[in-house]
Amino acid sequence: MNLGQIIKEKRAKVAGIGLGYVGLPLSLELVRAGFEVVGIDLNRSKIESLNNKISYVSDISNEDLQRAFASKKFTATSDYAVLKDIHSVSICVPTPLRKTKEPDISFILSATRKIRKYLHPSQLVILESTTYPGTTEEVVLPELEKSGLKVGKDFYLAFSPERIDPGNKRYTLKNTPKIIGGVTSNCAEMATALYSLVVEKIVPVSSTRAAEMVKLLENTFRSVNIALV
Fold first, then answer.
1. Which of 71, 115, 136, 167 is a Cys-bridge partner for 159, taking CB atoms 3.0 to 4.6 Å apart?
2. What is the per-residue burial (b if ≥16 Cβ within 10 Å, else e) of 152-164?
3. Is the pLDDT of residue 219 over 80?
């Protein structure tokens, strides 16, 4: 059975890498949608907090964590080896600005290298971290293809920018339109299949670069408006 069918039937096992204000809400929303989810973070204090059902993210309550763990569909770990049994991986690591005002993509590269170690056929990889246009195809793709697998044929790669607005009670992850751009049409199709079961509205774009540019423009728009205020 192909990946699309496994996702449709909600039998896909999903991983979220980076359990901050983006990765944790996404992971729990996937759990609520009916998927089995593994949250991965190298910060062991975060993993310990989660396993004790204590939230460190403002939009997630302790009760939210308790329900997720009680469903038996959510686990948290620092061990990337779990990826060998995962169907879809969402990268939600931070990209802080360097002193030169350029995004530090070292966390993206580190996560990608770890994913490559366990990459297997019919696996979907989605980058959500805010970054410059071209990152997915110029940085992530070449690293994953070092595995010998080919994108669009053996595995799928897409960019879907996070649009979390912390503290916003009106617009949440579920009702905020999700932008999706795939390296190939097959990649976009697989990412859409997954996120359409989690988010109310999907907005497909022509490429990963287009999706990356959407995020850059949105951040620029917010920055200008905040500066004006």
1. 136
2. bebbbbbbbbbbb
3. yes
Q: Which residues of 197-214 are buried (b: 16+ CB within 10 A; e: fewer)?
A: ebbeebebbebbbebbbb
Q: What's the rounded Cα separation, in Å, for the pair 196 and 82?
A: 25
Give the pLDDT score at 99.
84
Number of neighbouring beta carbons within 10 Å of residue 80: 19
37, two tokens: 């989810």
Using pLDDT thresholds of 50, 70 and 90, give the confidence band for residue 48: very high
What's the 3-state SS for 71-100? CCCEEEECCHHHHHHCCEEEECCCCCECCC
57-113 residue pLDDT tens: 999 999 999 999 999 999 999 999 999 999 999 999 999 988 887 889 999 999 999
pTM, to two decimals: 0.96
User: What b/e string do you get for 29-54 counting C-beta neighbours within 10 Å, with b at 16 or more?
Assistant: bbbbbebbbbbbbbeeebbebbeebe
